[in-house]
Write a structure and sequence with these properties.
By secondary structure, this protein is of the alpha/beta class. The chain is built from five helices and five strands, in the order E-E-H-H-E-H-E-H-E-H. Helix 2 packs parallel to helix 3.
């Protein structure tokens, strides 16, 4: 499966729907560039939807951590959505569960951004 990113914007966050394999070969710059472009475009809240990610290697984890640093250094938040069991286990082994906020519900993830900014959020 090829690596792709679809971008959706909400009033509270930009959502990057990631699919395929997040690996050195597949996502060497695409994921990092998508996150940087969102930040450069003024987005402070980024939600990475990983529902359709089939595999992540150590380089892919590096992309996630690098994206986290980019967003945080620019005063924003990055959160993860819909990790499958394999990706969740990898994040646990890499001790990244304490770094990222992880959600199973897009609605709850969006609400968490609103709670941090004090907005009136979605119903």
């Amino acid at each position: 499966m090829s690596f792709t990113i679809a971008i959706r914007e909400t009033p509270y966050a930009v959502i990057l729907d990631v699919s395929g394999c997040v690996t050195f070969a597949g996502a060497r710059t695409d994921l990092r560039d998508a996150i940087r472009d969102a930040v450069a475009g003024g987005q402070k809240n980024i939600l990475l939807n990983l529902a359709d990610v089939t595999y992540i290697d150590s380089s892919g984890l590096g992309q996630l951590v690098g994206g986290y640093a980019t967003v945080r250094n620019n005063g924003g938040q990055i959160k993860l959505l819909n990790l499958n069991d394999e990706v969740y286990d990898l994040m646990q082994r890499a001790r990244l569960l304490s770094v990222f906020n992880i959600y199973r519900s897009e609605h709850e993830a969006i609400r968490s951004f609103v709670a941090k900014t004090g907005g009136a959020g979605p119903g």
